[in-house]
TrEMBL record, chains A, B, C, D:
Residues 130-212 form the Acyl-CoA oxidase/dehydrogenase middle domain. CDD domains: ACAD (cd00567). This is Acyl-CoA dehydrogenase family protein. GO terms for cellular component: cytoplasm. Residues 241-389 form the Acyl-CoA dehydrogenase/oxidase C-terminal domain.
Amino acid sequence: MSIGFEIDERVADIARRTTEFVRNTVLPAEEASGGNVHAGPEPLRRRLQEAARAAGVFAPHAGRAWGGLGLDLCGQAVVFEAAGYSLLGPLALNCAAPDEGNMHLLEAVATEKQKERYLRPLAAGETRSCFAMTEPAPGAGSDPRALSTTATRTGRGWRIDGRKWFISGADGAAFAICMARTSGTPGDPGGATMFLVDAANPGMKITRNIDTLDQGLFGGHSELVLDGCEVDDDAVLGEPDQGFAYAQVRLGPARMTHCMRWLGAARRAQDIALERAADRSAFGRPLAELGMVQQLLADSEIDIETGRAMLWRACWELDQGRPAAQHTSIAKTYVSEAVNRVVDRAVQVCGALGISGDAPLSRLYREVRPFRIYDGPSETHRWAIAKRAVRAARERRAAR
Amino acid sequence: MSIGFEIDERVADIARRTTEFVRNTVLPAEEASGGNVHAGPEPLRRRLQEAARAAGVFAPHAGRAWGGLGLDLCGQAVVFEAAGYSLLGPLALNCAAPDEGNMHLLEAVATEKQKERYLRPLAAGETRSCFAMTEPAPGAGSDPRALSTTATRTGRGWRIDGRKWFISGADGAAFAICMARTSGTPGDPGGATMFLVDAANPGMKITRNIDTLDQGLFGGHSELVLDGCEVDDDAVLGEPDQGFAYAQVRLGPARMTHCMRWLGAARRAQDIALERAADRSAFGRPLAELGMVQQLLADSEIDIETGRAMLWRACWELDQGRPAAQHTSIAKTYVSEAVNRVVDRAVQVCGALGISGDAPLSRLYREVRPFRIYDGPSETHRWAIAKRAVRAARERRAAR
Amino acid sequence: MSIGFEIDERVADIARRTTEFVRNTVLPAEEASGGNVHAGPEPLRRRLQEAARAAGVFAPHAGRAWGGLGLDLCGQAVVFEAAGYSLLGPLALNCAAPDEGNMHLLEAVATEKQKERYLRPLAAGETRSCFAMTEPAPGAGSDPRALSTTATRTGRGWRIDGRKWFISGADGAAFAICMARTSGTPGDPGGATMFLVDAANPGMKITRNIDTLDQGLFGGHSELVLDGCEVDDDAVLGEPDQGFAYAQVRLGPARMTHCMRWLGAARRAQDIALERAADRSAFGRPLAELGMVQQLLADSEIDIETGRAMLWRACWELDQGRPAAQHTSIAKTYVSEAVNRVVDRAVQVCGALGISGDAPLSRLYREVRPFRIYDGPSETHRWAIAKRAVRAARERRAAR
Amino acid sequence: MSIGFEIDERVADIARRTTEFVRNTVLPAEEASGGNVHAGPEPLRRRLQEAARAAGVFAPHAGRAWGGLGLDLCGQAVVFEAAGYSLLGPLALNCAAPDEGNMHLLEAVATEKQKERYLRPLAAGETRSCFAMTEPAPGAGSDPRALSTTATRTGRGWRIDGRKWFISGADGAAFAICMARTSGTPGDPGGATMFLVDAANPGMKITRNIDTLDQGLFGGHSELVLDGCEVDDDAVLGEPDQGFAYAQVRLGPARMTHCMRWLGAARRAQDIALERAADRSAFGRPLAELGMVQQLLADSEIDIETGRAMLWRACWELDQGRPAAQHTSIAKTYVSEAVNRVVDRAVQVCGALGISGDAPLSRLYREVRPFRIYDGPSETHRWAIAKRAVRAARERRAAR
């Protein structure tokens, strides 16, 4: 093993087919639907996923046992970026958030029985799912330890009570993976447990779908109430009180897969800007020859290339099974901000067109903004990055 | 006269009443309507303008002869910022774009007869108007000289042919001030003429309302077709072939009034962020005591204060009747970018709330972005700023 | 009074003469000496100050009773910027740090006897002075309350013990204004007293002159030791235990005068860049027509103009005797950073020339950097700005 | 081959020994000499290089035939960063600019005879060299095609006439690789030839050593005059008229090795800042717990990690022999700017200490600035990056 940036033959082949599939099948569907998955009908999802399966690019991340292609994170980095070129691409490949992260979590933690019941149909695209962790203030937000939803023992299982919000994809999901506190009090660093809660459970209700800046997620972002929500013992995912640890199992890679998909969106915005700059003139010269436009275009190339290099690094560390928190924090922070800059510049290059619905840029502008907040806001990641760096400096000194 | 930042007693009084009016009357109306002027019914506009008149804050910019308060630009800077605190505030005071700029233009250039016919009802809030200059590529965009709509002599007047887009407020406007080329060819620095075209003119048609990132303008942004649009000689505004010069008469102050209103929006976003930081805790401490949040808040205070100081400077130069192109370009570029930064930071401070529709931030985030493109994109202004600075340096040297 | 940016006739006249004086007398002296005041001989200072007196521009800030021109801060803002165009300009006008701030402090706080003894020769340029507040860690630094130098009562006065560093201008100064703790312990918000200590006092010694990035200050930055330094009771400046309050009297305006001088330096860097861009070609076109160069030039114009507008605002607030801490913090933070950006861009525009000693840019690059640390680092000011903004938000809410 | 970030065993071993060697031998020598290579005596260079040889880390980049370790660029990336941790490290390992780039060029292009005469002693550290391409305006600068030094045929060779400046390391070099125009006129994209000119040649004279912001290069930056400088035919390096192509052979990797060394300097600045933040308190809390300090520290970690990932990517492309101009332009632009940001932040974290000579930060601050200009200013690279991106977009479209 050594330093290298060669993409494996098999991965390159899947990526090529994904790119072709996105161009020929997904982009036309996006155009037809206004890219509006939020309001999109279930049949569109079914049809696109059928086509992805036919193109041999369905569920690239899921294990082969579950009908997927079994790619590791480095492989996913290449393929998901290709999929992310369209807002509908990840949905078509069944690798969109939050399902993709939930599949990963279930593969890692669930019992065989739970896998058959929840993972198999999810990986096959027959169901959707959600991950119910975030709570309205003062509950679990950028600080997950503030978790205040509780699960208390009943005779034959648990009763969950609390409120959740910004639960992506909840509307239409077959089940939720729900974090609740089984010991300790809000602020404690432990004591959380994950539960598999069926959508049909009468104790869990969607109280509203939140109107948000982004519109790209199937099912949107919902607010849930868990009110005397009773579940059996076999609804516990993994061990009780280990929920925060499992959340890390899910969040480390999930942050990276977010980056991959958004990098594809950034690439698309930049391609639109490049084509515009190549075609359009102002002040008697092609835009592409105006220095300030060149600077916008160059800065976006720099952002995309550096972001991709850093993302691959973090993915490789995770693939090696090494502690990768510092690398994933850096990649998430950098890529989320880089992607925002790229889209913002593309809007600027395209001018009035950029802010109209005639190009997908204004839509992308809305979609990428929340990514600097979701999965840990930039400030929380920077705080963690600095803390780890200071700790490492102290250890280096102690070792001298 | 000397350097000073004291607000005149009368202006301060109008501003105080505006602030109170916005808080008590406009913000509740904004909340009730979702701030969505675009879809807002005409009655809302009428009702708010009645209330503004009752509060003594109606049409602060318009001459007293036309029912306004006759403030100069320095006075407008103070009052419009107070009005801009709500997205509906400028509409309520009848000082929203594009009507406000059109009133200014008509006062400066129109004949008495034209004033009675177009300005009087406009200043009174009985009608709305639009300014039809921008064209789809390769026509007049960031480079107005690319104007390609033509007006040709007929027996009894002119026939206008061409396409316009991004014409703000066109839907529902009683008339358009329409730029057309009466001599020369696209790219020539002269040869434009302004025409007053009634909405009822069968030769002018709205072909669609453009879906844009921003939603704040009454009437939205429309695409127009002028197809054999015949007008009489007295439809000419000012002198023929002087259209580009009049456009500067309109655009210089219009850029500044945009800045004033958006500065009010920035102030509001910052106030929301400050209240959130004061109320909410994370990681066991109030947000307002976390250093990275303090940095976001401080940077926004800096942006608002420096932007306001620069804006007042440019307004004062215009009020003195001095050549102020450099000052207005700098103020427009700086304020438009500062306002975007302020709103972006407020979104970040508020986290999930910031991107939801539960606070007006996600709405403001969409509204302020186009301002870096409208009225000359930042790049065009920077180009002009640099050119003037280099020319001044050459002149200084020649004088030595 | 109202909003205005007109420069008073008298101030404009002094500024014009200062500009002329700097161009004809100071810049040639700067060139001859390599701008190196640090190593500069005392005769140069004497000669330049004589010439400034002859030109009628000497000591613009000092009261007329002390031989100065008695300008308020708004007037100083205009004249000091003109002086700051050369690194030697402020020295020539006897308005360089730290003497200028010390004169202000002495005028405000000293007894008549102290004024005659210390202020009169200082204002006349016969002596120089220093302000001994900063201490090496863990003493008084960005947090002045950490003051650990002590002054203890003796029979006939006080004995001062402690270490000071980064004491600008100490080498060659006739006296120091020295902050020492007369009550409380390091960290307490009160308990400091200011003492006038003659350079001849055997208890105060310069232990070394610190090698620093900047080289512009006459006398450089020194480290002092106060070891059993005995002074009489009449060495106390103002009231005992009021030192921190007096420090604010000095620092508020001193921050602003720093900004004024550095703004002049920024203007000079930008002028060099503009001339270079006007003269030099690359890739077959004048630099001044290359878009990325235009962007650098425009951004610097924006920085200078916005910085000046903000600075004038803060000066005006101080001149009115209003609480101006928020305005001065904002002006200091913004101008110090803007000045650094301007000089950095000028270096970039000038390329190899910019980093050579053939233009003064590499020298300016070194001189302006510490300004983001001196007089409160940007982080300390941002912390204070945010705190005040949050407090104001809380008060606004309480008032509703 | 696949994506990977594992460092080869042998490279890791050399890097480990380099780190140890720098810490135990080079840093003490740097401290003793004030890091001032510029004025440093030749014996210091000899002694450090002896020690490096003894430590088994001498000339990591040079071929084994020339006494080096024969590392490819990916290997150099790891080892040079370790060497760059001290300003004297690259000199000690004989991998400093410009010698390192000249060795690479000679290995690639020189005849066997030329290699024996010039490369062997250079690789062994017995001689030093320089690369004489840059000329004062309007000659070859950021645009090499402006080359105006001429070489004209004589009976037995060539006569070179022209002026060069910013020729790094010229003072004390045994020979220069000198670019001169053998056909065409300034501005032509071809017609340059490289010549090996001995320092003893009476036609080549150093006219002055330029005083520059950076002080780190042995021999500094000199101005040369070539006045009737006669050389034989075997002084031609490679083929006549191929000089611009060879310059690319040299510059592509040379840009990357610059990045490697400066990344080491950035790492050092950040380590100083981290230790300071861990040790020092302000406002009653350790610096390392203040949010704004954490942000500075985190941003620098992000800059270093993303810069390194991008650098490795570009090195790998070069090692594969693929066209890597886009990757190297992006890496050079990004790393040079990132390194400047990192050092600037470290200065800020360390406050007064950061700008004093008591820590190496003020020195590093001066050293890294020119790197955004040397080897192609950021603007030139951005221009090239944008052009390539637009061209690629056009090709992609043509292929559809």
